[in-house]
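@channel sequence for tomorrow's demo:
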Amino acid sequence: MILLHWGENDMNSEVKNMETILPFGNTLKPLVASSNILLMSDLKGSLAQKGIFISSSSKEDILPLMLTSLLSPTEFENLKEKQKDKESIPKRRSKSFNYKGTGKLIDLISELNLVNVKNFKQWELENYEIVDVNSFTMIEKNMNKLRTTYRIKRSDYIKDWFNQVSYHDAVLEISLDEGNNRIVISTEASTDETRGLNDILSKKVSAVLKEGNLIENEKGQEIKFGDFTNENRINFLLNFANDNLDHSQTFKFDKITNIEISIYPEKTLPDKVECMENKVSNMKFEGAALHETEILKDTKYHPSLIISLLKINYSFEIKSTTGNCIVEIEFPTKRGKSMPDSKSEFQFKFTKITCNNKIDTKAAQTTLYRLFDTYKDVCYKRTTSKNDFDEM
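structure tokens (generated this afternoon):
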């Protein structure tokens, strides 16, 4: 393969044979300067691999060195992969159903595998295509836990030339807990496209379960923003700081480092924060131990506050490894809005996973997503008094 460096004089040229081009100068800038994904530490690490060490973490000091360096194919690919990894962090959602049958999920695997994602839409009208679909298979050889995955190839020609084509994976899992008479459908997606496909796939799978007489209806139950009072919603989110609720004993709470808070206009604010009334609609806090702040610990503030997002640090232990992770839990807020609407569905994602031994981090991630989903259910059951979510 011939590898060419593409310089400033070629900025207006038509891009051809992108896989053979190594950018430098201004053509490298969109990746290393305009991206909100790559950190300065990522760029410093790339320079260090070339034997260029810099103590400063300033963008003004680092970028000129990057833009005047000739990247090797490996170095360029490493930067692109770091960006892709950070952009493609999956968010997990789940829906639960009352289990009414006596059979196992594996009994329906033939019917489930007839549900083909490729038949959902007219792909000629989309900016992506499905390039890989995997059949439902058992998880950990458990006949009551099934999983399917697929991948899309997305084309976005308004992006920088080396980001115009991207690949995104998606997951759907079904699990049956006969002891608690619950079936849970969980999905993971990192893009609007895969999220939309997962919604359709989840409905199709629910229909198969209903036809197989395993669930009563296809609607299911989700955890939504409007399910809670302000106080109960805060209690639900703060339950994730109580690792005693993690029955798998996987996660050990460390600290809360980020919070997003809105002011509820229909409640009177306590004295210490009444100065924010009619002046502040949304606040973002970052810190080392926000769970110890008075605004979270003192319940008198809770009726006036709407918390939509927490970022939590844990240490973890699973069969294959131990390590540390950062989990972001949230009720998503639509763009341009100061708070989530009542139908906003709870979701979570692992923004960082660090393993203490050299194993496949992707494999650890799969396990952690599944275990945290169960942890979430217990946190919800602790908060709600709904009859169909009895205490475990």
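heads up for whoever presents: Residues 1-18, 275-281, 386-392 have pLDDT under 50 and may be disordered.
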